[in-house]
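URGENT: need a sanity check before tomorrow's submission.

F., can you look over the GTPase HflX record below? I want to be sure the sequence and structure line up before it goes out.
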Amino acid sequence: MSKELVVLVARKDPFEQEERFQSSMEELQSLTETANGEVCKIITQKRDRVHPATYLGEGKLEEIKEAAEESEAELVIFNDELSPGQLRNIADRVGVRVIDRSQLILDIFAGRARTKEGKLQVELAQLQYLLPRLSGQGTALSRLGGGIGTRGPGETKLETDRRHIQRRIDDIKKRLDTVVKQREQYRKRRKENRAFQVAIVGYTNAGKSTFFNRVTDSQSFEEDLLFATLDPLTRQMSLPSGFLALLSDTVGFIQDLPTTLIAAFRSTLEEVTEADFIVHMVDASHPDHMQQEKTVLKLLDELGAGQLPVLTVYNKKDLLKEDFIPHSFPSLTVSVHDPIDRKRVLHKIEEVLKEEWDEYDVFVPASEGKRLQQFKAYSMITSIHFYEEKEGYALHGFIHPEHPLKHQIL
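Structure tokens as predicted:
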């Protein structure tokens, strides 16, 4: 597939830190590459205020137009969300297709969604984004030949009127409600079985799926791309003590996620609020990893998962150029490609849990095989002794304070 040539445009607020601005631009470039675009020129302008009609000044728009003509770019992508009016005015001045960061992210999501729910959520977000931007899109739509920002379920329906789109939005919301209810049933069943749930969260491309696949032996999509995982997967994993847990891989976080998407992907992220434990994966080699870490913690707080026990895993230590100082605890610095490091993460999860859970001693007669299995699966056994004269097992371990098994411990 040939790559689409793209000019990136950004406004730098004089008060914004240079590092943060650079990191945001790198992210925009990665997003463009993930959407199969090739960046041929980057244009920035320092400007106190956004121009209400054209976002940037006339002179800058002229420069963008020339850059697009010179490099034969077919698309201009702005780093900010543009208003419907700005999008129209800029496209008129520049003469090529113009999209903003939100449309770019929506486009990637459209190409990545695998499950029915994922596809519905992307379509909902795209339609909600498009609705206020419909008027005046006539000329732009007749030029829609495909390409970045036009993929996904939206493109064939764009020419129809608002009422049709509004009906479709209502319809998708109804269908999503059903899916959410099914998911809740499923979660309720897991809770009744008291399955212990661990959710992996983190910025996009931090290594979550790699870790998930290696410790659960599954085939989740793994690639060095932003948003490689969109649909939450849950698989069983076994901790070193033999304790069984469910591990969920979640969608990657990103700075300035479009508002329509935060709403649409709420339910995918709700897996996190149902978790008992969070593994927060951070790409330690990323120049802006501190900001990324804060972004994720803030979102966890907003989702109501801020009080859960968290283990921060600083990944990609093989790419570090200098000594790394973690600033969250408890934490580990690892490379999830290394089997020894993955074991360290699992041991550390148990270590953190021991501090949260209740210690217990219990004697289980050998005749009660089922009960013994329950303790093995639902608690962390640290020692087990068989006493011949008593014909049974003395167990020592740790258990979740609210686990139903706990009342069997005398």
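My own read: Residues 195-355 form a domain with the Rossmann fold fold (CATH 3.40.50.300). The two ends are 66 Å apart (CA to CA). If you see anything odd, call me.
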